[in-house]
Design goal:
The protein is globular, with a radius of gyration of 43 Å. It has about 300 residues and is of the alpha/beta class. The longest helix has about 40 residues. About 40% of the residues lie in helices and about 10% in strands.
């Protein structure tokens, strides 16, 4: 063999190895480039689907007057919140008393009567006047209260006290209902109407339908009988049912002495009138007279049941 053939044979293996190495290097380079491209390419997130919202109806805003209107069976607006837990029997402030005295009530004939005339030389010739604010004119509980009060405290007995005293009743219904209300309760005291509830507001009286946990002693009949009586009165009144007053409004009792408020009780629920014995003690009425009147009232209530 010649020397050139030996050189060719010896040179062949390195060339093959070089070819294999070159192929491997090419594959590695392509892999590196692909990885680099994947790292540098930003992540593409799928676009979120558009949110489908229900079609909103167009609401029409109506403006209502804040001027009080005639009270009726179903007052307009949202039901009032329960009486605040801090509702107290503190005496009204001077501005509140001035606002109260500037209000006008309505007599049974519909004539305007200044509230101040009730306790300052108007129809009452007494130095002390107990003004009782009742609920609507169909409220059976308030009617029971007035029946018991009228049996225990007569106008003549109140005027004969060392300090002559009178009682006046104020309801939140229309004056057309006063006459029927007086007949239903046998109330001998003058009754007035405050359908705009201005006097109630001035004194901070609450609005609620809460019944209260305790049945008062002045209710001589069962609550079922009282409720049925009130319902029957409402039906018999016909169109007058819308003139009874605001069913949410509750009242209380206020004692005026020479035009100044000396004592007040604000009702927390629909059965929270002061007991007649409490009122007699506030007015200084002898217990025997009150007891005799209450006994007669209980006997009459028993016969009615």
């Amino acid at each position: 063999m010649s020397s050139s053939a030996v050189d060719v044979a010896a040179a062949a293996p390195p060339a093959a190895v070089e070819s294999v190495e070159t192929s491997d290097n090419k594959d590695a380079t392509e892999k590196t480039e692909m990885e680099t491209k994947m790292k540098t390419q930003p992540d593409v997130k799928p676009e979120p689907e558009p949110e489908i919202r229900p079609k909103q109806e167009t609401q029409t805003t109506t403006t209502t007057s804040t001027t009080p209107t005639t009270c009726d069976l179903n007052p307009e607006g949202e039901p009032p919140a329960p009486p605040p837990p801090d509702l107290t029997d503190t005496l009204p402030t001077s501005p509140a008393l001035a606002l109260l005295n500037a209000t006008f009530l309505l007599s049974p004939s519909g004539a305007s009567v200044p509230f101040s005339s009730l306790h300052s030389g108007g129809p009452n010739a007494a130095t002390r006047v107990l003004v009782i604010f009742v609920r609507h004119f169909f409220c059976g509980i308030c009617q029971e209260f007035l029946r018991t009060l009228s049996a225990a405290l007569s106008p003549a007995a109140l005027l004969a006290l060392p300090e002559p005293t009178a009682i006046a009743i104020v309801g939140c219904g229309r004056p057309e209902r006063i006459e029927a209300y007086a007949r239903a309760t046998g109330c001998p005291f003058p009754i007035y109407a405050d359908p705009a509830r201005k006097a109630y507001e001035a004194l901070g009286m609450a609005r609620t339908l809460a019944l209260g946990a305790v049945k008062p002693r002045y209710v001589g009949r069962s609550m079922l009988a009282v409720t049925l009586s009130s319902f029957v009165q409402s039906l018999r009144s016909g169109r007058g049912v819308v003139k009874g007053g605001d069913y949410w409004q509750v009242g209380g009792e206020v004692l005026f002495v020479n035009g100044e408020v000396r004592w007040i009780h604000r009702m927390r629920n629909t059965r929270d009138h002061s007991e007649v014995g409490v009122l007699a003690e506030v007015l200084g009425v002898e217990g025997e007279d009150v007891a005799r009147g209450l006994w007669d009232r209980c006997a009459a209530a028993s016969s009615e049941a």
